[in-house]
Amino acid sequence: MMSNPDFSDRFREALDSEDSLVEAAVSRDPVTTFAESVARGLGAARKSLDCRFLYDAEGSRLFEEITAQPEYYPTRTEAEILERHAGEIHAMTGPVTLVELGSGYSVKTEHLLSAYAGDDARYVPVDVSAGALRAAEQSIGDSFPEVNFTGIRGTYASAFRVLRELSPQMLVFLGSTIGNFEAHERRAFWHDVQAHLPLGDWFLLGADLVKDRDTLLAAYDDAAGVTAHFTKNYFARMNRELDSGVDLGSVEHRAVWNDSLDRIEIYAEFTSAQAIRVAPLGRSFDVGEGERIRVEVSQKFRLPELTEELERFGLEARSSFTDDRGWFGLLLLQRVREHASS
Ligand SMILES: C[S@@+](CC[C@H](N)C(=O)[O-])C[C@H]1O[C@@H](n2cnc3c(N)ncnc32)[C@H](O)[C@@H]1O
Description:
By secondary structure, the chain is an alpha/beta fold. It is 37% helix and 24% strand. Strands 1, 2, 3, 4, 5, 6, 7, 13 and 14 form a 9-stranded mixed β-sheet that branches. It has a 3-stranded antiparallel β-sheet with strand order 8-9-12.
């Protein structure tokens, strides 16, 4: 994907001005990017879709609704850990810029900002969802008017390009969003972090941990059906932006625990056969009755293995925090050296 060559300049200008949102615009039409991603996924032997595109304005809103469901323990648990340990984290890092990847509505981040706000803190949230960034700007502006807010609407990759400008910093990646990556994508992501985060800078990572299957399955299939709605919204977006012609009534949400890979897999299962169009590319893909399209994975972690994996990328754990039930982990890491094999 080609990136806009002057994004770094515009970002630098925004830091010195009153601009609160910078578009890391790509020079390509976003609908074409979406269309190509969908066509790639539906053309594969095992059909899947890139979960990044779950987050249009409606998807971001639905995700916030999911986080409030009684079965969805990750948000509440991580928030509790952040609230309890934000002071300690601040004491370890000292005053730093907070750069948050996939920040969404930044609700939990407010616990961190409570600890950092006294430092005339700068907060740089990064998200593909403009709606989420605007909601975050509003609520952080109300609660922490002293915090300097400069949001980036763009992908993680766009943020990596400007990390050098923001040192000393703590890169923040919450919500176990890292679990949405396949293992090879996760390792590529650690590689990017170590390649772009200056030595000595900090990395705060939230990771959901392996636990009993019923608790996990309930979290991804809430009784109120909000997660099911979130899955369906992917196809509503395809209908709107790609003229896909999917019969939304035939899309069923399925959450499955994959025991051998320690992950939840979310599928859309079709109750009737469909020809799914990707109109901007003039293509169409057949989906059979009962066929499943994977829309998301959510890897669950074991802290010792995760810590060891990060260590191999020069990201050393300085502290690790969990809740009383050991359901969710928060790792405070520091970048200490080059990746041995890079
Ligand atoms: C699982 S939600 C987590 C939101 C929030 N951090 C939390 O913990 O509640 C993932 C967020 O990452 C954003 N996102 C997904 N893929 C992204 C990408 N490639 N680049 C930037 N943001 C992305 C989504 O828009 C969404 O707001």
